[in-house]
Amino acid sequence: MELFETMLQHTSVRSFTDQKLSHKLKEQLFLAAQSASSSNFLQAFSLIEITDTKKRKMIEQIAKFPIDNGDNGELYIFVADLNKHAQVLTLNNDSLEHLRSVESLVVSIVDAALAAQSMAVYAESVGLGICYVGGIRNDLFQIKELLDLPELTYPVFGMFVGYPAGKNEVKPRLPIDSVVGTNTYRTLTPDMIDSYNEKTTAYYQQRNSNIQETNWSEKVRQHFESPRRSDTVDFLKKQGFVF
Ligand SMILES: Cc1cc2nc3c(=O)[nH]c(=O)nc-3n(C[C@H](O)[C@H](O)[C@H](O)COP(=O)(O)O)c2cc1C
Start and end of every Nitroreductase domain (predicted)? Predict the structure, then answer.
């Protein structure tokens, strides 16, 4: 399949076959991740491969996202990482002040996300399936302990990667003209929302599994009806970031 078609066929995969990824393929995934663009060439991310079954189970428990009884697929954790840069500055007796800023944190989160998505696109181009796991942030302090995360790092998300046991239907995206503006920001209008809700209602009713009476607006409302992961700022402060 052409890369473009593969990208448009993306769906998150939440169950994998028992086929293992070869050493070579894993290496290619890591190189694909590392080849992403990086703000000011800081390369402010790290990748942690989880091979310890007990650790994987604990991470899945934190994320409330158990996969194939911990047996199939690989789990990788993407970490926004300014610790490496702190080491460079410390070795030169430089101040860490500007490393601790929200702007630096954003840079490192963006770098981690770009690396992850480069890895995801490569994975899907060779027939693998992926699913991001933001649920690891349900308990940042426990994740820090499990992974020995040092100061100035932040676990952004995990990613399952493996050979798909099955694939879901593609979820229809927002209309492109609500996402792409020309010269100015394009506002999402009530009409656009209505027509997208119709599309997503049909998607949720007609898909093969986990059929639901809902639509995109309802999903958005549910998502924002209560606070989520309110210990994030506390965690980031403890990791050495200054707000
Ligand atoms: C940063 C991020 C975190 C995510 N975390 C989870 C998660 O914890 N559990 C889960 O089931 N899906 C997770 N997903 C997958 C999204 O739910 C999924 O991408 C979205 O519903 C669109 O579906 P699709 O990927 O099949 O197109 C995450 C996706 C992203 C980008």
Answer: 9-163
